[in-house]
Amino acid sequence: MKPVLQTERLTKYFGGLKAVCNFDFNLEEGELVGLIGPNGAGKTTVFNLITGMYEPTEGKISFMNEELFRLKPHQITQKGIARTFQNIRLFNDLTVLDNVRIAYQYHLSYGLFGSIFRTHKFRKEEKQIEEIALELLGLFNLEGRRNEVARNLPYGEQRRLEIARALASKPKLLLLDEPAAGMNPTEVSQLMELIKFIREKFQITILLIEHQMKVVMGICERVVVIDFGEVIAEGSPQEVQNDAKVIEAYLGEPLRDCGSGSV
Q1: Nearest in space to 229 (alpha carbons), one of 46, 64, 53
Q2: If we measure between CA atoms, which residue out of 225, 228, 218, 222 comes closest to residue 255?
Q3: Do 91 and 150 form a contact (C-beta atoms < 8 A)?
Q4: Contact of 51 with 81, CB cutoff 8 Å
Q5: At what angle do helices 155-168 and 185-202 cross, to 10 degrees?
Q6: Could you tell me the pTM of the whole model?
Q7: pLDDT tens for residues 126-153?
Q8: Rounded distance, CA 23 to CA 8, Å?
Q9: Could you read off the pLDDT of 84-106 as tens digits, one per residue?
């Protein structure tokens, strides 16, 4: 396997708070890895650093052996990293189909002239995009909802749509931020099967943040635990589950403060 994502001494301050502290991490091609920790441990901050929403205070982030420093979020998406969010972020007033279609914008080649004058190239590419989007919606059992406005979908289907839209950008790495949040037990079980299916179908590397241990222990091959923004344990789900530092962190007894606080 070859490395997809690497971070070295990754650190982020917010004023006097150190949210992420010397975060060293390697993600190999094809892995499905969980990033866990107590509330406020810095997990989403790590995702925001990887995707360019925050700029690191210190350290490096490399994707496919290319540094991501100072790249904008849309540039990082073009490189092949896609994500979902804790709070679903759809284009609520657009249809289900248009939510997926819009993610293909980085792969269009007809340009402004083609879009204004509706050239043959424009019509051909738009038709191809619609066909691909419908195929993707079909994989997520959403094809029958194609013309519905996104805000009208049930919660579980909105989650699936957000993942489908992320995959529409053709990523090499998919970051899932608490995909099971707000789901009932049946939806959680379906989500677990969906994530495994996505990994196999799209030959993609997945890093997920999740609080539901059923998901983490059920599908992740490796788990990384952070507390106060710093890695405190790493290993198989079983190894991490029995780690004394992890147990202490989840009981609410901080081990050591790497700064003044956490985010």
Answers
A1: 46
A2: 228
A3: yes
A4: yes
A5: 10
A6: 0.90
A7: 888 899 899 999 999 999 999 999 999 9
A8: 6
A9: 999 999 999 999 999 999 988 77
